[in-house]
Amino acid sequence: MPLSVIIITYNEERNIGRCLESLTGIADDILVVDSFSTDKTEEICQQYSARFIQRRFDGYSNQKRFATEHAKFDYVLSLDADEALSPELKTSILNEKNKWSKPCYSFNIRNHYCGKAIRHCGWYPDKHVRLFNRSVTNWTQKEVHESIAVNDNKAVMHLKGDLLHFTCSSITEHQEKEKKYARMNADILAKKGKNILWITPYIKGAFRFFKTYVIKLGILDGYYGFIISKTLAKSSFYKYSWARNAIRKK
């Protein structure tokens, strides 16, 4: 039975080719929804015969909902441009394509950081539902860290194999990405209007470091485990600090 793949992009010439290559032999429809890239993203997508639609970015959830609605087939696999199917996961999906026994499918995401596979930090196994029947479910309305709404865990089958996520090629890239997420999360928090104490950003940041580095065993990932833990801690600090400042200005 047919499968659509949706991908949202913005200036992803570095990653999109690897992503599309991994879909060879499995995708019956590839839709790329792009936020007006200025690099070679569109050119590369055309080489793989992907449908290419440009749309103003108005949030991850909205962008992916739009892509899901414009997919040709009901079963939809959602990927980010910096992700690729491992051979084992590809085989698992191909086996399910013959029958589609469940409305939702989950699998583990293996994150690669500066070229190194991260095995701890809460980053693996990082299980997500990314393959689903759009006639049954769709994306949540969260502005950040969007996900597929699942009300019944019995409706989900976990597939063997990893989705390979090449998250950041440099520490600076990760720091900038986390600052962006912190700003978005701070805006969401500020809209709630709840009072935030001056000490809260420090407590949240310290706990995030302890959780990632100690509880989630980031220490076992060596140097990059420390850097990831420190970067996530700063992101948490910024989130609550920026939200507090925004609330005080109201």
TrEMBL record:
Keyword Transferase: yes
Signal peptide range in chain numbering: none
Domain Glycosyltransferase 2-like: 4-98
InterPro entries: Glyco_trans_2-like, Nucleotide-diphossugar_trans
One MF term in the entry's GO annotations: transferase activity
Record keywords: Transferase
Record-stated family: Belongs to the glycosyltransferase 2 family. WaaE/KdtX subfamily.
Name used for this protein in its record: Glycosyl transferase family 2
Biological source species: Paludibacter propionicigenes (strain DSM 17365 / JCM 13257 / WB4)
